[in-house]
Amino acid sequence: MEHSRNRLKHTAFFVGLFIVLFLMIMKRQTPPYAFLHNQTLSTESPPYFTQLTIPKPNDALSVHASALISLPNDNLLSAYFSGTKEGARDVKISTNLFDSKINRWSEAFVILTKEELSYYSHEYIKKLGNPLLFLHDDKILLFVVGVSMGGWATSKIYQLESALEPIHFKFVRKLSLSPFLNLSHLIRNKPLNTTDGGFMLPLYHELATQYPLLLKFDKHNNPRELLRPNALNHQLQPSLTPFKDCALMAFRNHSLKDSLMLETCKTPTAWQKPMLTNLKNLNDALNLINLNKELYLIHNPSDLSLRRKELLLSKLENSNSFKTLKILDKADEVSYPSYSLNPYFIDIVYTYNRSHIKHIRFNMAYLKSLLK
Fold first, then answer.
1. Cβ(171)–Cβ(121) under 8 Å?
2. pLDDT tens digit string along 346-371?
């Protein structure tokens, strides 16, 4: 009987070992999809640059954390949180439409309140945070951060969807990212489309040790696989952009002393060792962007005395060195950039002194003039 028990234990051990090894091998295999490349932007038009202020809700003292997408009709949609201040209970998710024919932003309108999210999710929602817009096929996806208790470290991510017209978001799901408390997950930067019709959403975990994550969605906007691309800690808000045969990722440091790091991938599920750059990131939001196969960074200065007082556009000169091309704006605070592309323009929205969202639009000819 004892011999039989020992055989059973050994069999169970080897079966378990086989399963672990099988999962490790499967993880290393090339996934059946790749990242799609950005569209090529026109270089034919004369240089163009303009800057606008987006109208905020009349009752909003503060606006922050804007997101931006280009619509199929070449108009833009921007979303951000508005209210008394960040984390206040009166914060709502507001949005504006940009009419490209007349170069004008609409008045702001509310697309989500904490009361609405609480009702549809069947959870108590104390406050709302970062919104993220993403155009996928014929739907506008909205991912938003909600908090039921405490601060941002106890947040969850919720998914909503809208038709292109009229814009009205319907609740889809709460993202289940952990078998335990499912807390402390946030989003900031836009996903990348994949060749199987789905997309990869960058997100991050903020409780205790902060680290980046990637969530794979299928073509029907359903989450399928959660990946941790590296073993880094204290890295927030991963920004993804297509690069060569895969992608490049940058991170917001959760400190005021660490160098900005970049990470490339062999496949969407196999990432190489992160490398240091010549810039520091002082716990500031940023965005990597691939423009006609050249890499650029929208970011704040490395100098602590200028922290968030300038918004910069820099170009990646070699594998880990950026050169600043232009100061896009200056103020007491210019931060949290987000961008969108169409065949003719690069559009950037960002926080201006926490009181407004500003919009910059330029074309490739203007960018080329900065390189001379």
1. yes
2. 999 999 999 999 999 999 999 999 99
Q: How many CB atoms lie within 10 A of CB 186?
A: 22
Per-residue b/e over 150-183, b at no fewer than 16 CB within 10 Å? eebeebbbbbbbbeeeeeebebbebbebeeeeeb
**β-strands 170-174, 155-163: how paired?**
antiparallel
The CA distances from residue 238 to 98, 142, 193, 201, 287, in Å, are 27, 18, 16, 10, 9
Contact 20, 26 (CB under 8 A): no
| pTM exceeds 0.70, yes or no | yes
Q: CA 17 to CA 57: how far, in whole Å?
A: 58
For residues 352 and 61, what is the distance between their CA atoms, to the nearest angstrom? 12
Cα separation, 182 vs 186, whole angstroms? 11
pLDDT under 50: residue ranges of the chain:
1-2, 4-5, 8-9, 12-13, 15-17, 19-27
The CA distances from residue 179 to 183, 199, 227, 335, in Å, are 10, 23, 15, 34
Place of tokens 């208790």: 149
What pLDDT is attached to residue 72?
95
Give the whole-angstrom CA distance, residue 79 versus residue 106.
12
